[in-house]
Design brief:
The complex is a heterodimer of chains A (about 300) and B (about 525). A seven-stranded mixed beta sheet of chain A has the order 1-7-6-2-5-3-4, sandwiched between helices. With about 300 residues, chain A is α/β, with parallel strands linked by helices. Chain A has a single domain, classed as Glycerol-3-phosphate (1)-acyltransferase (3-Layer(aba) Sandwich). Mean pLDDT of chain A is about 85; it is low at about 300-309. In chain A, α7 (about 145-155) crosses α8, α8 crosses α9 and α9 crosses α10. Helix content of chain A is about 35%, strand content about 10%. Chain B has 21 helices and 20 strands. Chain B has a seven-stranded mixed beta sheet with strand order 1-4-19-14-16-17-18, with helices on both faces. A six-stranded mixed beta sheet of chain B has the order 7-6-5-10-11-12, sandwiched between helices. In chain B, α1 packs across α3 (about 95-110), α3 (about 95-110) runs parallel beside α4 (about 130-145) and α13 packs across α18 (about 460-465). Chain B starts with 6 loop residues before the first strand and ends with a strand. Classes of the chains: A alpha/beta (about 300), B alpha/beta (about 525). The interface between A and B is medium-sized, with 11 and 18 residues.
Chain lengths: ~300, ~525
């Protein structure tokens, strides 16, 4: 009996497979973009989240990444709601951004998270939406439900952390910013604060299995308002153009992180800011050109032998 | 959401294992790729007010028949016959539909001032019902009003004084039925039509008949030419019953037929997975199934039997129709087909089926090997319309433990039939010719049938004849997981596993055979084109 027990348990726990000869019915489940996160904003859930962020997330981030925060003064004039748009290279990004936000923002912030990744299982959806305040965001196609939820929360004076690249960087370079953050900012008339994270990828990159301690820098940029600029036609810029402007601001912060504020400013004024998305070249050349802060060396013990490529 | 119809699934690599009934237990079998599984339809929605439906049917009869209230008058002799314990299967959760119908009829009879009312359980050659079974079927109110006064009778096919010979059909068939029923001013028959085989003229011509009459349609020739028993237009047994029924009508017996149909809601909620398709089982279904399966493998058979026999079905009533026999039965068949018919394209080389713990003749009893054969080859094999699911010369694989066990009170003649007759021969004609008469007239069996709770001495013969069409049609019969000696005694082949059985079947039907599994119960009728 003991030998059979695991098989029986497996048959009980595993969902039966669906016959390939039958069409699957369309079923609306409380998962993915349909997951209802309302309960995670109830007072008790916010209290639990606050306890988790203060007592688990922040100490963990402090130990693992020793974050240094720059540009916090840019947030002083803001009252919220605010959209924080950050580059994305690691699962730790969310925890780091939340840990580094001033408390008045942190207490009322939700995080846009991939509906297909963080909300594909009931337990994952419940865990992350409670622990980090994630809300499901469709990233493979435009989804009215995701947008409506985020917009309603912004209207309800919740701040939003969003990663406009739509996923973690595969090679350490940035990816094109999608229009979600810009669209929401325009729709709700809220400012977007560009955020740049430097040094997170070596700590825990995409596909990584082990966490390595490292030093992370986080920079807040100047808030960007959707109505600040006009496009070439003289009309108010559209979401796509605004998304590009957000990307340029994050690129400027990235340059500043690698050099200094003044040099980055001058390069930006001359239109010489290094490409955020890296060189348009073969994979090895892109890897070769990667700044040291984005590389993950083979061994954390090889500090002395780490070569600057 | 409206209930989904039945359908045929083609098994592929991602099809989960299929549930096979296995007596008081289950098997979980992975069918080969390309095999087909015939799934029954989901239960139709039940009537929201069955009592109103009964009253409506009684006052709006079908065919050339006035409303029941117009037929009832003070001073008349009224007899109400009803189906016995063999229907429905599993027994219905209270209130049984017989209770609802008979109470409605008795309300009208009371209003008409009728004093002479008798209720008769239409047993034919089945065992008598116990008081508990009668009380369950009729309800406390009816049982307490009639049984203590000797007005609740059970048909006795061996009481010469209680039978009357009404004549012979044009085919020379004796028609001998219950005297009280035949001589009443009005005979009301209350049916439960679980399958298309039940009802129509068969109700009176079989349920209230004697051996002398029954032998004309319960014999090898008739049953081998009943193709199928679920299709009365192609069933010799039904043709014979119809001839008898028309004779009964022509000699002046006035029958008011009431037929009811049930949906396929056959199992209580804790066994809900038995009605679902395996890939739709929830976590609770899977846990319930595997817990039941493991427990049933470990408990004594007697306890497993008690658990299953105590199961009551939450059937819903889908239709009630009353009036002239043939007009009523035509509508009943339409309603049954609406619930049970599943379109199947083409026949198969190998038909597999999992046989459950229950057939019409082992309610609160033991499913002995003869009844296993009857359930598989007599009933399940006949669940078709058009052509049999399996081709001529094909193989039928049945899954059942087939224990060498008999209920000594209910099935005494079965024991001797199995030990003496089948030990000698399994040939139907030979058995009919050599042994039937002796068993049918054996005074001890007659005594037990009349005074105890025993099936008639000839009943095991009828069960064996019931397999006649299948045995003539099939190339081989294999029983998986059965008692080897019992299986061999009946002339079938035993197999330990389904895989073994399929391999054995290939010796008969050739390599790469087509396989079809009948996923029943719940009941279905395959409409094979």
């Amino acid at each position: 009996m003991n030998a059979r027990l695991p098989r029986v348990l497996d048959e009980v726990v595993s969902r039966p497979t669906w016959p390939g000869t039958l069409p699957r019915p369309i079923e609306r489940r409380n998962l993915g973009v349909d997951y209802d996160t309302t309960w995670t904003r109830a007072p008790w859930a916010r209290l639990v989240r606050r306890a988790l962020v203060d007592n688990v997330t922040r100490p963990f981030v402090a130990v693992a990444t020793s974050p240094k925060v720059f540009g916090r003064e840019h947030l002083d004039p803001l009252e919220g709601p605010v959209i924080f748009a950050a580059n994305h290279s690691s699962h730790l990004d969310t925890s780091i951004v939340l840990s580094c936000l001033p408390e008045r923002f942190r207490r009322r912030t939700v995080v846009a998270a991939a509906a297909d990744y963080f909300f594909d299982r009931p337990w994952k959806a419940a865990l992350w939406s409670l622990a980090l305040g994630t809300i499901p965001m469709e990233r493979t196609k435009v989804n009215r439900r995701s947008a409506d939820l985020a917009a309603s929360l912004l209207t309800d004076r919740w701040n939003l952390v969003i990663f406009p690249e739509g996923g973690r960087s595969r090679d350490g370079w940035g990816q094109e910013f999608r229009g979600g953050a810009a669209y929401l900012a325009k729709r709700c008339d809220v400012p977007v604060v560009p955020v740049h994270l430097r040094g997170v990828r070596p700590v825990f990159p995409k596909g990584g299995r082990r966490l390595r301690r490292g030093k992370v820098e986080l920079r807040f940029g100047d808030p960007l308002w959707p109505s600040d600029a006009t496009g070439p036609s003289g009309r108010e810029e559209d979401a796509r153009r605004f998304a590009a402007r957000i990307e340029e601001s994050v690129a400027l912060l990235a340059d500043e992180a690698e050099t200094d504020w003044w040099s980055a400013r001058r390069r930006a004024a001359a239109g010489m800011t290094p490409a955020f998305r890296g060189p348009d070249a073969s994979p090895w050349r892109r890897a070769w050109a990667l700044p040291a802060s984005a590389r993950r060396t083979r061994s954390s013990r090889s500090k002395s032998s780490a070569k600057p490529w | 959401m409206s209930p989904r119809p039945g359908f045929v699934l083609e098994v592929d690599r991602s099809t989960p294992p299929t549930l096979f009934w296995h007596g008081e237990g289950f098997r979980f079998e992975q069918l080969p790729e390309g095999a087909r599984v015939v799934y029954p339809p989901e239960p139709l929605d039940a009537l929201s007010d069955p009592e109103a439906a009964v009253r409506h049917a009684l006052e709006h009869p079908l065919g050339d028949c006035p409303p029941l209230s117009a037929l009832l008058r003070a001073g008349m002799r009224l007899t109400i016959a009803f189906d016995d314990v063999s229907l429905p299967l599993p027994p219905m959760r209270r209130p049984d539909i017989r209770q609802r119908v008979i109470e409605a009829v008795l309300d009208l009879a009371a209003a008409a001032g009728i004093d002479d009312v008798v209720l008769i359980a239409a047993l034919a050659l089945h065992r008598r019902m116990t008081d508990d079974e009668l009380r369950h079927a009729l309800g406390d109110r009816v049982f307490d009003a009639f049984a203590p006064h000797g007005l609740l009778l059970q048909h006795d096919a061996e009481d010469p004084g209680a039978l009357v010979h009404l004549g012979m059909t044009e085919e020379g068939e004796d028609v001998e039925i219950n005297r009280r029923a035949a001589e009443s001013d009005l005979l009301i028959y209350v049916n439960i039509n679980l399958s298309a085989m039940d009802g129509g003229h068969k109700s009176v011509a079989t349920g209230l008949a004697s051996y002398r009459s029954l032998r004309h349609h319960h014999n090898v020739r008739t049953l081998q030419h009943s193709r199928s028993l679920m299709d009365r237009h192609h069933s010799e047994m039904h043709s014979s019953n119809w001839r008898m029924g028309r004779l009964i009508k022509n000699v002046g017996v006035k029958i008011f037929q009431i037929e009811t149909t049930l949906n396929l809601d056959m199992f209580p909620s804790q066994f809900a997975y038995l009605q679902k398709r395996e890939w739709e089982w929830s976590l609770a279904d899977r846990a319930g199934f595997h817990a039941s399966r493991l427990a049933l493998e470990r408990i004594p058979p007697r306890l497993a039997r008690q658990i299953f026999q105590s199961m009551l079905a939450p059937y819903g009533v889908t239709s009630v129709q009353a009036g002239e026999v043939e007009a009523v039965h035509d509508v009943t068949l339409e309603n049954l087909h609406r619930q049970q018919l599943v379109a199947v394209e083409g026949q198969t080389d190998i038909l597999t089926m999992g046989l459950p713990y229950l057939c019409p003749y082992n309610v609160n009893s033991i499913m002995n090997p003869v009844l296993v054969a009857c359930l598989g080859l007599g009933y399940f094999f006949n669940l078709y319309r058009g052509k049999p699911l399996v081709r001529a010369g094909g193989v039928c694989i049945m899954s059942h433990p087939t224990p060498w066990a008999f209920h000594p009170v209910h099935h005494p003649s079965y024991i001797d039939f199995f030990e003496q007759v089948l030990a000698d021969t399994t040939d139907l004609i030979e058995i009919e010719k050599t042994y039937e008469q002796a068993f049918a007239t054996d005074p001890w069996y007659v005594h037990l049938y009349r005074t105890s709770y025993a099936y008639h001495g000839v009943h095991p013969f009828y069960m064996w004849y019931w397999c006649g069409h299948a045995l003539e049609h099939l190339g081989a019969v294999i029983i998986v997981g059965g008692d080897r000696a019992a299986v061999r005694r009946m002339g079938f082949k035993p197999a330990s596993t389904l895989a073994d059985a399929l391999e054995m079947a290939e010796d008969v039907v050739g390599p790469n055979p087509t396989i079809t599994h009948l996923h029943a119960p719940p009941l279905l009728v395959a409409d094979v084109s």
